[in-house]
Amino acid sequence: MSENTRATNGRVLPVTDLSLVVLVGASGSGKSTFARRHFKPTEVISSDFCRGLVSDDENDQSATRDAFDVLHYIAGKRLAAGRRTVVDATSVQQDSRRQLIELARKYDVLPIAIVLDVPEEVCAERNAARTDRADMPRRVIQRHIRELRRSVRHLEREGFRKVHVLRGVEDVDNATVVTEKRFNDLTHLTGPFDIVGDIHGCAAELESLLAKLGYVDGVHPDGRTAVFVGDLVDRGPDSPGVLRRVMSMVKSGNALCVPGNHENKYGRYLKGRKVQHTHGLAETIEQMETESEEFRAQVREFIDGLVSHYVLDGGKLVVCHAGLPEKYHGRTSGRVRSHALYGDTTGETDEFGLPVRYPWAEDYRGRAAVVYGHTPVPDATWLNNTICLDTGAVFGGKLTALRWPERELVDVPAEKVWYEPAKPLRTEAPGGHDGRPLDLADVHGRRVVETRHQGRVAIREENAAAALEVMSRFAVDPRLLPYLPPTMAPTATSHEEGYLEHPAEAFAQYARDGVERVVCEEKHMGSRAVVLVCRDAEAARKRFGVDGPTGSLYTRTGRPFLDDESVTETILDRVRTAIGEAGLWDELETDWLLLDAELMPWSLKASGLLRSQYAAVGAASGAAFPGALAALEGASARGVDVADLLARQRERASDAAAFTEAYRRYCWPTDGLDGVRLAPFQILAVQGRSLAGLPHDEQLTLLDRLVEHDSTGLLQTTRRLYVDTGDPESVRAGVDWWLEMTGRGGEGMVVKPIGAVVRSAEGRLVQPGIKCRGREYLRIIYGPEYTRPDNLDRLRKRFLNHKRSLAIREYALGLEALDRLAEGEPLWRVHEAVFGVLALESEPVDPRL
Amino acid sequence: MFLTITTTGSPERPATDLGFLLHKHPEKSQAFSTSYGTAHVLYPEADAERCTAALLLEVDAVALVRRGKGKGRGGAPDAALAQYVNDRPYAASSLLAVALSSVFSSAMRGVCNARPERAAQPLPLRIEVPALPARGGPELVRRLFEPLGWAVTVEPVPLDPQFPEWGDSRYVRLVLESDALTLAEALRHLYVLLPVLDDAKHYWVAPDEVDKLLRVGEGWLPEHPEQKLITSRYLSRRWSLTREAMERLELVRLAEADDSEVEEIDNAVEAESETEEKPTPLAVQRRDAIIAALKASGAARVLDLGCGQGQLVQALLKDPAFTEIVGVDVSMRALTIAGRRLKLDRMGERQASRVTLFQSSLAYTDKRLGGYDAAVLCEVIEHLDLPRLPALEYAVFGAARPRTVLVTTPNVEYNVRWESLPAGHVRHGDHRFEWTREEFRTWARAVAERHGYGVEFVPVGPDDPEVGPPTQMAVFTAVVNVNDEKEAKAA
């Protein structure tokens, strides 16, 4: 028989794409052959294979218990991952099937049975032909078949949602399996959608909202699709009107609808079940009295056909009535339906006698946005990528819709209070003002952060542990810590005489990466500082959920820069005023700004380090050399030959003096804010936008305006020079600029591609900046005597690859944090990337680089 | 890296005999290679009246850093050396002491074949060390040298004359003078006391270090009034080796990235109390009060949130009423020490099954902390910045929700009763705040109100009628236990 005729003559067996398929048949009935023919090899797990795994013998019956443990474990992992799984075991006993049904329920997938009822002779003949089963007693097959026949009628009652029985060899051989999608899987629909919250019979408000959304008689001219989150009926003045509108839009393909608990209850009423006429059902029943019997029948059918939730837009959007945790998305079980309709409750009741709802959205960490209703709130707000659209239209609130993918909210006010609420509307959206923390599972242990610029960035466990310690004990509130700056690689090691670093290498490196235009920015002699500044306390409260501070000022490991909060606020105030004077709030359409900057002097923050390490070295050398040189001079005067040693000690003494000069440039006294200077060099993000990709020349122009409008002397400009890496003349000017600046004691400069986020021809992310540190400054890093030729020779053997890789990974995480912040992603998503930067900072890398 | 030894003499007993005693010829400059660089001996003056020998150690700083390559922070196995910019090339540190003992080894033993009689006799000596690192300052320098018969002149070296407000450095200029000591004695004093004053953890201690100290200290160390300090500092370098093994390099790097010293952030465990075996009476009283309150609540499964070095966990383990004890801390160092203290690796299976230690943070919710009978926050909240306290509150009372929560914290009013505590100071460097009884109670009552707990207050330690007890404890008891009902529903 050819494949063709088999396909046309045989039974067609629909099998849901995500399901647990249980093959039921005696030993030798051809289950493995059937599975091989109709399913992918990886979809099938056979008990024989598992027996072999645990005992080295596929027919060792004493290993059965362990083998099934393994089988259930593997099946569980596959189902949890959303993969269809076919169990190839006899499954003729009810008890073994019961375990599989429980497994399917546990992972909320459909259990499907395919029964292979093949005559005993055929089974026996096939077994006899197999060396490993040739001695299987005939009575085993007989028992299998007896048990199969006994159970086959009960399979649906046992819980199988689909049962296919194939009788006889021909039936088995001719059958075809077709994969069916789940009803809730509408991932192929991309909208755009207008998702409408709980209507509760407010027909007039619905019509106003549809009109405001641009629908004309239930049809949108741009082909948009309305999606209703349920609770169309009850309490309000015109439930039949709402049903009529929604049903016709669904029928004509202009809308989708998921059921709410109110439809569900009304549907049961229509089917003649006994339900309590409470919570506004009485109004619906009464209004429907005047409708035709035909309409009521249509309503019954409509409600009956509603699917509890939909997965839309390639999996990016989930719509249901009462919210749904990620593990239930696209799943099919009574439990999933119940959560979609009623949500989860804690088991408590509140002071109004209503069940306390479990805040599932607080725990939500899924990538898909979940749009739902059910719980009336004053305003629709996003929490962890979920949003509740029930804004209490029937209680005199408003009817709200969400435009997707635009994520815009559109609402119309209620015409009146149609129904008195049992309790006042209040926001249950948590996370905002009461300081609810992030979850440890978002940051702890080995993690991989997905970044859009550099793919997956891995974080090791020990680094996450260190970051956890610093983040928990020292960092500012994570809500005010939306970014940490990445580390920066130095320029390739120079072989120029007397130099370890020289800008020629940086220009050459960018030229090789295909970057033609770079900006050289003066490296300020201070400490890195990130400044988050909001327009006022209210803006800080609204966007960042904090009560009190108007922003934050923190170091490169997220610690508050200054101990005194009031001094921080004074600095923020000065920056805020400058932003206002420069007109940047309106120009950038934002009421907050995130700045990358340098705060000076270095001694302001690093005074402990300066004193205990740098000044100490200066003091020790200053005390030791005069005596040593005098001793050598004395010996020399007596005619002892110490000429070489004396010359060398004089050089060392002068190196030490140069070192002392080098660190002194970083110290100047400050009194309050007098003497403190802040040099912003990049605007990282504003409301709705990451500015990390804004070219540096435009950045600096904006920042110059900021500095110009500061009348307090706090803000300082960043000097810069533009260089064309392909033009020797321009490169020479760049080198001269650096020589001149560092010759006067400057720290050096940072060379950046003008285009900010730049990729090489091969698509690699190029270094966002390369630092070229001054010859004298490097004494602080490599020690006073690093410039001695033999020392330089040894120090030139430094390895930059790890530092460069680290710089790129941290940069990608930083960009990711900014993108997530700009897109209004939940706090844990921003924090995940920020935490990643801190964790990577604890990777082992030569700290002198 | 530099010191001079001067003696005076007469035509009969020429000062130049110093050359014989040191086994180094006064008319030559000699170089000796040591493990840290080249040591030079030369004589700036040498005649019958006055003879000075100078020891100059040229430390190879780059090599010093490279020595321990591959062992952590940029390479070096110990903290002081790993700093690329360090004082070793300039200060008269223990490196100089090591050079001293190898260049003048015979002299240190008192061996002099050319002038055996002079080696055994005291001679006028003047020793000058221009840059001596001295932890403990001039005061300690005197206490160490004066009992040995030295006239001591010691002047502190300012940190940076350009910034007088920074004060003195940890270096002093030291001049020792005596007529009563032999050269060998003088060298032995320096050999032991230079590293003791330096007190840096940078020396590779050999197993025979104790023997060496006994040998070199013979005749002067046993009677020295500071013998205990000298011995413990000299040998503390051995302890620092064990400490090294658990050095949290990740934290070191995070401190470095932020231009701060690692002590600033890796301070969850106090260095002193780590070795301290006798706990303070207040700590014992606190522990007793906590255990009494736990017993009264009937708790069997207990969380110690912020368990530190595990003292409370250890005490709880002794009582079989506590069937499950979980010690949690954010500091990995604390957990390592706690694990060692509890001897987890040697504990019997049954005992071990009662105790778990893991890292967590109260700035985040942690599902693993749910479902316990009681949680203890013993001297924890005051280590959090006040703005982060709501996060802890939610993590404990909102998310973990044990039936009983015990919180202890210092009562700042009592601080006036601590004699050793300067006015206005907190009791511990890392305390971000200390509360009065009223402040603590206001906070505790608000927390209880917000999360459905009742709260009572218990004094710990002597309850002073005026300022209250040194430690205050709040006992929170859940009014409705949400967890129980959640579990019931899930079942």
Q: How helical, in percent, are the residues of chain B?
A: 25-40%
* Level-1 CATH class name of the largest domain in chain B: Alpha Beta
N- to C-terminal distance of chain A = 73 Å
User: What is the assigned CATH homologous superfamily of the largest domain in chain B?
Assistant: Hen1, N-terminal domain
Q: Name the structural class of chain B.
A: alpha/beta
Q: What level of helicity do the residues of chain A show?
A: 40-55%
- The CATH C-level class name of the largest domain in chain A: Alpha Beta
Structural features, described:
Chain A: GO terms for molecular function: hydrolase activity; kinase activity. The complex is a heterodimer of chains A (849) and B (491). Chain A has 849 residues and is an alpha/beta fold. Chain A folds into six domains: 3-180, Rossmann fold, CATH 3.40.50; 185-413, 4-Layer Sandwich (Purple Acid Phosphatase, chain A, domain 2), CATH 3.60.21; 440-488 and 798-849, no CATH class; 494-524 and 719-797, Dna Ligase, domain 1; 525-599 and 676-717, D-amino Acid Aminotransferase, Chain A, domain 1; 602-664. A six-stranded mixed sheet of chain A has the order 8-12-13-16-18-17. In chain A, α28 runs antiparallel to α29 (827-840). Chain B folds into two domains: 2-245, 2-Layer Sandwich (c-terminal autoproteolytic domain of nucleoporin nup98); 273-490, 3-Layer(aba) Sandwich (Rossmann fold), CATH 3.40.50. Chain B has helices at 17-22, 61-67, 79-82, 94-103, 105-109, 116-119, 137-145, 183-198, 209-216, 227-245, 249-257, 262-265, 271-275, 281-297, 311-317, 332-341, 349-352, 389-400, 437-451, 482-490; strands spanning 2-8, 30-34, 37-46, 50-59, 125-133, 151-158, 168-178, 301-305, 324-329, 355-359, 364-365, 374-378, 404-410, 453-460, 471-478. Chain B starts with a strand and ends with a helix. Classes of the chains: A alpha/beta (849), B alpha/beta (491). β21 of chain A pairs parallel with β11 (364-365) of chain B, so a sheet runs across the interface.
